[in-house]
TrEMBL record:
One GO BP: regulation of transcription by RNA polymerase II
Residue ranges occupied by any Mediator complex subunit MED14 N-terminal domain in the UniProt entry: 15-202
Coiled coil: none
Described function: Component of the Mediator complex, a coactivator involved in the regulated transcription of nearly all RNA polymerase II-dependent genes. Mediator functions as a bridge to convey information from gene-specific regulatory proteins to the basal RNA polymerase II transcription machinery. Mediator is recruited to promoters by direct interactions with regulatory proteins and serves as a scaffold for the assembly of a functional preinitiation complex with RNA polymerase II and the general transcription factors.
InterPro entries the UniProt entry points to: Med14_N, Mediator_Med14
Subcellular location: Nucleus
Assigned protein family: Belongs to the Mediator complex subunit 14 family.
Protein name: Mediator of RNA polymerase II transcription subunit 14
C-alpha cells in the first residue's frame, strides 16, 4: 500500500518567534522613550502624566504576557511547523468544496434559457372538440340582443328554482330565514347589519351552486351615531368580498356565507366606532378620553377619565368587542379594575324603540356619558358609605342629593351653611358648588390622590372649614390666633377629649384639631384651647397654661371653662351654632378664670405655701378681728361680704420672701373689677420692731413711696405695719407676671430690713440716709469715707442686683472695680472668703442676689472696708505726693519759676514711685531709682533699679476678722532698699503705733491694720530721704 503524499510545507506569511520578540522589545523601548520625552512637558499636570505612564505599562505588560504564552506553547509542541501545514492544507480542501458548489449553481442558472414552454392544453382541447379555437372578438362583432320574453322566462325559471332550493334547505341560518326571492335572486336582510343577494347559474335545482350577486351594509355613521341606512361597498372591496363569499358558499354553504358577511359587517361597525372615538378625542373629550383599536382581534378598549390619576390595576375602561354567545357587538364595563355586570345599561340603546324615527342604532358618546354618570353616582355613594363607616350618626353631617338627575353629597358645616360636592362626568374630577379657596384646594387634593382617601379628605375639609369660620369669628371678637403651639399626643390626653362618635379611633389625630387663642391683654403662656372636630358638631373649650421647653410644649395647668363665675357651674360648651355674642361672653368667662388662678400659680412657682380662702369664709373674719391689719383693708373688701367672692391668700413668710422683721404670715388681698378690667392686689404684713433710723422723706412715722403709677408701699413704724399695693390693668398688661411689681417691692423691703439689721448692730458705723432702694452709712472718720448700697431694680451688667456708690474723695476709689467683685461675691456665700487668686483674673462670675441677703457675707464686705481703710488712706496720700512730685518736675523742665526741683540725672528724676493693686488682698509700692553705676566696668553709665514693697492682707482663719487679720509687708529684693526697711525686716528697727508694734519676720514684717497707714508713709519717706534729696 502506497504511503499518502507529504504535506506541502508552507513558508509564506510565516514569521519566526524570535523576530516577533525582538521587534516588540524594540517597539516597547521606543514607546517608553517617547513617553519619557512627553512627560518633561508642562502642558499636563502630574496626575495626567502618571495616568498616561501607568496605561502604557499596563499595555506593554499585557502584550508580553501574550508572548510568554506563545513561547510556552511553542516549547511544548514537537513540530509547530507541521501544525501550520495541516491547518493550511485543510483550509485549501474546504475552499475547493466551496468552489465546486458555486460552479454547479452557475450551471443551473445557465440552463434556464434552454427550458421549453408549458403546453397550452386548454387550446388543444378546444380545437379537438370544436375544430377551431374561440378567439376574442374585441368588440368588432355585434351580439344578438336578448328578447324580453326570454329574459322574463329566464327570471321566472330562476325564481322557481331558487324557491325550490330554499325550501329544500335543511339547515338555514336563523338570520337568513327572513328572505325574499325576486328578479332571479334571493335577498337576505339581516336587521341592522347587512343585505345580501345570491343566485344560481342556471335553472337546475340540484346541481347549480349559489353565488353572490350583491352586498351592502344596513348602517352608516352620521353625526357621531350609527344609524340604519344602506351603505354600498366600493367596487374593489365588493369584488374581493364576492370572491370570498363564493368560496364560502362552495365550501360551507349558506352558514359559511352568513358567518363571513356577519363578521365583515361587525368588523366594519367596530371600525366606524373607532372613527367616532377619534373624532370625540379631538373635540369636547380631548384629554379625558383615550382608546385602543385592534382590528385583528376585533375589539376597542376605551379608557375614560384619562387625566384622573389611578394605578394600572384600577383603570376604568369600556371594552367593545364581539360577544361569543350572541356573535354580535357588545361591551363590558370595568370600573376601577373590577368588572361591573349589574349596571343596567344596554349597548344598543334604541333597539325596538318605535319612537326612534331617525333609525339611530348606536350612539357611543351617549353610552360613555351614561357609564360615567353611573360611575359618578357609585363613587358618591361609596364616599357616603365610607363616612358612615367611620363616624356615628353620619346622616347628621352628610346626605346625598339626587335632584336634577345629578348625584352629589351635601355636608352640613353648621346650622345654616352647607357645602355640595359632585363629580364631573366628563373628567371624573370632583368639584364643589360655589367654591371657596379652601374648597378648591380640597378638590385638587382629592383629584390628585387615591379615591379611597376621598372620604377622609372631605371630613378634613369639614374640619378646616370650621376652623376658618371659628377663627374669623374669634378674631373679630378680639381673640388672637397662636399657630406656634403644637401639643404632643401625651399632652393632648390631659384634656380628656371624648371621641365616642368616631368609629375608627386612629383617625382622631387627623379629624380633630386643637387651636390656641389668647387675648391681647393676657399673660404669656395662657391660652384658650378650642377643640374642633370634623366628625362632630360639638366644639370644646379649655383654659390652659402651656409652656415650651426646647421646642417641646407641655400643659402645666388646664381646666374646662365653666359658665358664669360660679366654679361649680356646668361645663360651658358652645355648639356649632355659636354667634358673636356667645364668643364675647366666652372672653369674659375665660378672663375671670385665668385671673383667679394666675396669682396663686405664680406664687406657688416661687415656692410659696399658700392657703386661699374667700372673703366670705368665717376663718377670714376671725383672722382680721384678731389683727391690726383690718384697718388697712380698702373699701369694698370686708369679711363676711356675701356679694364678694374675692380671694384672700395667706402666705407663709418663710417660703416666699423671708422678711426678717415680720410676724406670722403675709396676707394678699385680690379684688377684680369686671367694669374697668383691672385687678387690685394688697399685700399686708406686721413688723416686729422699728427701724434703726427714720426714712428720708418720711412724714412722721409713716413712710410712703410710689414705685410706679400702679405700685406703692406704705410703712407705719408706729403701728408696725406695712402694706404694698399693686394695680394691674388686664387689657393692657404685657408683663410676664401679674405679681412682678408686688414681689419686687417686697424683695426691696426684705433687703432693706436685712441691711438695716446688719448695719444698725455695728457701733462703728453711722447711718446717714435710708430709703427703700438705698442705704448710706459712714465707716470712717468723716462723710467722705462713706458708701451707699443700692438695690437695683434689674440686674446690672455684671449680673449683680446690688450696686454701690461712694464719694470721689473716698480713699477706696482706687479699688472700686475690686470692691464691685467683692460685693457680688458677698451676696452668694454665708461668710466672706478672701480670694486667693491675684490679678484681674480673680473676677469670678456673679450670681443674682437671692431673695434674702446673706448677713454673714455682707458683713464680711463691710469688715473688708474697715480693714483696708488705713491702707487706702496711705495709698491716697502716697498717690497725691506723686502728683506733687510730677508737678515740680514739670516746672523745672519749663523753667517757669525758681522752686527747688527734684534731684535729676541728665534731666531724669532720680526717684519715681507708683502704686499697683493686684486683686483685693495684694498691693504694691514700686520705686524706680535712676543713678550712676557703681560698677567700675560701667563707670559713668546711668542705670535704673526697681525696688518693690508688697503689702498683703492675711488672716488667721477662713474668714475676715478685725482681730485675726494683719498686713504682711515684704520686698522681693532689698539690695537697694533704704536702711530703715532692711532694719525693719531684721528686727533692729522698732516701729510702734497706738501701742501696736511691728513683728519682724526676716524677709518681711507683720503689722496690724491700724498701723499700716503710718508704716507705709515711714517707708515712703525713707526712700525719698535716701534717693530723692541732695544728701
Amino acid at each position: 500500500m502506497d504511503n499518502p503524499p507529504e504535506l506541502p510545507h508552507v513558508e509564506v506569511n510565516v514569521t519566526p518567534l524570535s523576530d516577533i520578540l525582538a521587534r516588540y522589545s524594540q517597539h516597547s523601548f521606543q514607546e517608553l522613550q517617547t513617553l519619557i520625552h512627553t512627560l518633561q512637558s508642562k502642558a499636563k499636570n502630574d496626575n495626567a502624566k502618571k495616568k498616561a505612564f501607568l496605561d502604557l505599562l499596563v499595555g506593554i505588560r499585557q502584550n508580553f504576557v501574550r508572548l510568554y504564552v506563545l513561547c510556552k506553547w511553542a516549547r511544548a509542541s514537537k513540530d509547530i511547523g507541521k501544525l501550520i501545514d495541516v491547518f493550511v492544507w485543510l483550509r485549501g480542501q474546504n475552499q475547493k468544496y466551496a468552489d465546486s458548489i458555486f460552479e454547479l449553481s452557475t450551471i443551473k442558472s445557465s440552463l434556464m434559457s434552454a427550458k421549453l414552454p408549458d403546453p397550452d392544453l386548454t387550446t388543444a382541447i378546444e380545437v379537438l372538440m370544436t375544430g377551431r379555437p374561440q378567439l376574442p372578438t374585441h368588440g368588432l362583432l355585434s351580439k344578438k340582443p336578448l328578447s324580453p320574453y326570454l329574459i322574463l322566462k329566464t327570471l321566472r325559471n330562476l325564481n322557481v328554482s331558487l324557491s325550490t332550493r330554499m325550501a329544500l334547505e335543511d339547515d338555514l341560518p336563523p338570520a337568513f330565514q327572513n328572505y325574499k326571492v325576486e328578479d332571479g335572486r334571493v335577498v337576505f336582510h339581516v336587521h341592522k347589519s347587512f343585505q345580501a343577494s345570491i343566485a344560481i347559474a342556471d335553472d337546475s335545482v340540484d346541481d347549480s351552486p349559489f353565488f353572490l350577486v350583491d352586498f351592502e351594509f344596513s348602517f352608516a355613521l352620521k353625526d357621531g351615531s350609527l344609524i340604519q341606512a344602506s351603505t354600498p361597498l366600493p367596487a374593489v372591496t365588493h369584488s374581493k368580498i364576492e370572491k370570498l363569499a363564493n368560496a364560502a358558499l362552495a365550501k360551507e354553504g349558506l352558514f359559511g356565507l352568513y358567518d363571513l358577511l356577519h363578521r365583515f359587517a361587525t368588523t366594519f361597525k367596530l371600525y366606524l366606532l373607532h372613527r367616532q372615538l377619534v373624532a370625540m378625542r379631538i373635540g369636547l373629550w380631548k384629554g379625558n378620553l383615550s382608546h385602543t383599536y385592534n382590528a385583528e382581534k376585533c375589539f376597542v378598549v376605551i379608557k375614560y377619565w384619562a387625566k384622573k390619576p389611578s394605578s394600572s390595576k384600577q383603570k376604568s375602561t369600556i371594552e367593545i368587542g364581539i360577544n361569543k354567545q350572541t356573535n354580535d357587538l357588545s361591551f363590558r364595563w370595568v370600573k376601577d379594575g373590577k368588572l361591573i355586570t349589574d349596571h343596567g345599561i344596554s349597548f344598543d340603546e334604541f333597539d325596538g324603540d318605535e319612537d326612534n324615527d331617525d333609525g339611530e342604532m348606536i350612539n357611543l358618546e351617549r353610552l360613555i356619558r351614561r357609564i360615567t354618570k353611573r360611575h359618578s353616582e357609585l363613587n358618591i355613594q361609596q364616599i357616603y358609605d365610607d363616612i358612615a363607616d367611620r363616624i356615628e350618626d353620619a346622616e347628621k353631617l352628610v346626605s346625598i342629593n339626587r335632584e336634577g338627575g345629578n348625584c352629589s353629597i351635601v355636608f352640613n358645616l353648621n346650622a345654616t351653611k352647607t357645602a355640595t360636592y359632585s363629580l364631573d362626568a366628563l373628567s371624573g374630577k370632583g368639584y364643589f358648588h360655589d367654591p371657596t379657596p379652601l374648597m378648591t384646594d380640597t378638590a385638587n387634593s382629592i383629584n390628585s390622590g387615591e379615591f379611597s382617601e376621598s372620604s377622609l379628605k372631605l371630613l378634613k375639609f369639614r374640619l378646616e372649614s370650621q376652623i376658618q369660620e371659628l377663627g374669623s369669628m374669634l378674631s373679630a371678637t378680639g381673640w388672637i390666633n397662636v399657630d406656634v403651639v403644637k401639643l404632643p399626643s401625651a399632652e393632648v390626653s390631659k384634656l380628656n377629649i371624648s371621641y365616642a362618635e368616631l368609629k375608627e379611633p386612629h383617625l382622631f389625630s387627623q379629624l380633630y384639631s386643637i387651636r390656641f387663642f389668647r387675648r391681647r391683654e393676657w399673660t404669656a403662656g395662657w391660652f384658650l384651647c378650642v377643640g374642633i372636630s370634623g366628625f362632630s358638631r360639638q366644639v370644646n373649650w379649655w383654659c390652659a397654661r402651656i409652656k415650651s421647653n426646647l421646642g417641646q410644649w407641655s400643659i402645666n395647668w388646664t381646666e374646662s371653662i365653666k359658665c358664669g363665675q360660679n366654679q361649680h357651674a356646668s361645663l360651658y360648651r358652645l355648639e356649632q351654632d355659636y354667634d358673636y355674642s356667645s364668643l364675647v361672653e366666652l372672653s369674659r368667662i375665660s378672663a375671670a378664670k385665668l385671673l383667679c388662678h394666675l396669682i396663686e400659680e405664680e406664687l406657688i412657682d416661687k415656692g410659696a405655701k399658700i392657703v386661699t380662702l374667700d372673703f366670705r369664709h368665717p376663718n377670714v373674719d376671725k383672722f382680721f378681728n384678731n389683727s391690726k391689719l383690718k384697718s388697712y383693708l380698702p373699701e369694698g373688701l370686708q369679711p363676711k361680704n356675701e356679694d364678694d367672692n374675692s380671694p384672700v391668700m395667706f402666705i407663709d413668710n418663710n417660703t416666699l420672701s423671708q422678711v426678717p422683721n415680720c410676724w406670722g404670715d403675709l396676707v394678699l388681698l385680690v379684688k377684680m373689677s369686671s367694669e374697668t378690667r383691672t385687678m387690685e392686689m394688697i399685700l399686708l404684713g406686721e413688723l416686729k420692731q422699728r427701724f434703726y433710723a427714720p426714712f428720708s422723706g418720711a412724714s412722721g412715722d409713716v413712710f410712703k413711696q410710689d414705685f410706679s403709677e400702679n405700685t406703692s408701699i406704705e410703712v407705719n413704724q408706729k403701728e408696725l405695719v406695712f402694706s404694698i399695693k399693686s394695680k394691674v390693668c388686664v387689657e393692657n398688661n404685657r408683663s410676664l407676671s401679674l405679681t412682678a411689681d408686688l414681689l419686687t417691692v417686697l424683695n426691696k423691703l426684705t433687703a432693706l430690713i436685712t441691711l438695716l439689721k446688719l448695719v444698725g448692730n455695728d457701733q462703728t458705723i453711722k447711718l446717714l440716709d435710708i430709703s427703700l432702694s438705698e442705704v448710706t452709712f459712714q465707716y470712717g472718720k468723716d462723710a467722705s469715707e462713706s458708701i451707699s448700697l443700692i438695690l437695683a431694680n434689674k440686674n446690672a451688667e455684671d449680673g449683680s442686683r446690688m450696686l454701690f456708690d461712694m464719694p470721689n474723695s473716698n480713699p477706696h476709689q482706687f479699688a472700686r472695680d475690686y470692691l464691685r467683685i467683692l460685693l457680688a461675691e458677698s451676696l452668694k456665700v454665708p461668710q466672706f472668703v478672701v480670694p486667693r487668686v491675684y490679678g484681674s483674673s480673680s473676677a469670678m462670675s456673679m450670681a443674682n442676689m437671692p431673695g434674702i441677703i446673706s448677713p454673714g457675707g455682707l458683713n464680711g464686705f463691710i469688715t473688708y472696708l474697715k480693714l483696708t481703710l488705713p491702707l487706702s488712706r496711705a495709698i491716697q496720700e502716697i498717690t497725691s505726693k506723686k502728683a506733687e512730685f510730677l508737678k515740680l518736675f514739670a516746672k523745672k523742665a519749663s523753667l517757669t519759676d525758681d522752686s527747688t526741683p527734684p534731684i535729676t540725672i541728665n534731666g531724669i528724676p532720680c526717684l519715681m514711685h507708683d502704686v499697683f493693686c493686684y486683686g483685693s488682698s495684694r498691693f504694691r509700692l514700686e520705686y524706680i531709682i535712676t543713678r550712676k553705676s557703681e560698677d567700675q566696668k560701667k563707670s559713668g553709665k546711668i542705670e535704673r533699679v526697681k525696688v518693690a514693697v508688697d503689702v498683703d492682707l492675711r488672716n488667721r482663719g477662713s474668714f475676715l476678722d478685725a482681730n485675726k487679720s494683719l498686713f504682711y509687708v515684704s520686698s522681693p529684693d532689698t539690695t537697694h532698699a533704704p536702711t530703715f526697711l532692711k532694719e525693719l525686716f531684721a528686727g533692729t528697727e522698732k516701729f510702734e503705733h497706738d501701742g501696736k508694734s511691728v513683728v519682724a519676720l526676716q524677709k518681711g514684717a507683720a503689722v496690724a491694720y491700724q498701723s499700716i497707714h503710718p508704716l507705709l508713709l515711714k517707708i515712703h519717706d525713707a526712700f525719698y530721704e535716701k534717693y530723692g534729696t541732695d544728701s
